[in-house]
Amino acid sequence: MNKIVVIIPAKKKSRRLKNKNVLLIKGKPMFLYVANEVRKSKKIDEIIISSDCNKIKKVALANKFKFVKRPKELTYEDAEKQDVIVHAIKKIYRNYPKPSIVISLQPNSPELRYKDLEKALNFFEKKLYPNAKIKELISINRNKIQNAAFRIMTYNTVFQKTLSTKIGVYVKDLIDIHTYRDYIRAKKKIEKKN
């Protein structure tokens, strides 16, 4: 049986928009709003929050999410997000059965609905190179630009040191929040839909 885990990297500092990951969306910190949305999926087995922030840790644990303390060297602007994902996987699954699918999910794309993630997962599992041990799927917008909402990978893909050759895409227009203007636009869209 495939075990599917989601890792949400939600560090304390943000260069372009201060406290981005804890800005409120419908009364909840953005990272929590996204985690709660994904939790609705029956396909997801575990959600892990990776952060260096004690406030984020407290909220994550209070809402029964797994938490990984991110080391200082992975909080700098030049730190690679993939290194954050590798760290979280190694920390959580050192002595436990490894997941077969790992999803890197950005907290700053709060428009994402769990049903879109499920559609992307179905494509990933059934149609995207079904027998490949290394493959990944990224989300892009209709202009064919990566919107960074999510990246779905096989377990082996998480640790690869070379470029992927088996890649798929999932098209969904989502605001990738990096500025206050982005935040207000996304917040208004979400409030209007609900």
Uncertain stretches of 5 or more adjacent residues: none
> Judging from the principal axes of the Cα atoms, what is the shape?
globular
Report the oligomer.
single chain
CATH level-4 homologous superfamily = Spore Coat Polysaccharide Biosynthesis Protein SpsA, Chain A
Average pLDDT: 90
Q: What CATH architecture would you give?
A: Alpha-Beta Complex
Helix content: 25-40%
How much of the sequence lies in strands comes to 15-25%
Please identify the structural class as seen in this structure: alpha/beta
CATH-derived topology: Spore Coat Polysaccharide Biosynthesis Protein SpsA, Chain A
Tell me about the biggest sheet? 7 strands, mixed
- Whole-number tally of structural domains: 1
How large, in whole angstroms, is the Cα Rg? 16 Å
* The CATH class: Alpha Beta
In DSSP terms, counting alpha (H) and pi (I) runs of 4 or more, how many helices?
A: 6
Instruction: Order the strands across the largest sheet as they lie in space.
Output: 5-4-1-6-8-7-9
How many angstroms separate the termini? 35 Å
The number of strands is 9
Order of helices and strands: EEEHEHEHEHEEHEH
Plain-language structure description:
The protein has a single domain, classed as Alpha-Beta Complex (Spore Coat Polysaccharide Biosynthesis Protein SpsA, Chain A). The chain has six helices and nine strands; from the N terminus they run βββαβαβαβαββαβα. The strands form two sheets. It has a seven-stranded mixed β-sheet, with helices on both faces. It is of the alpha/beta class and 194 residues long. It has helices at residues 30-39, 54-62, 81-92, 114-126, 155-158, 180-193; strands at 4-9, 24-25, 28-29, 46-51, 66-69, 101-105, 136-140, 146-154, 167-171.
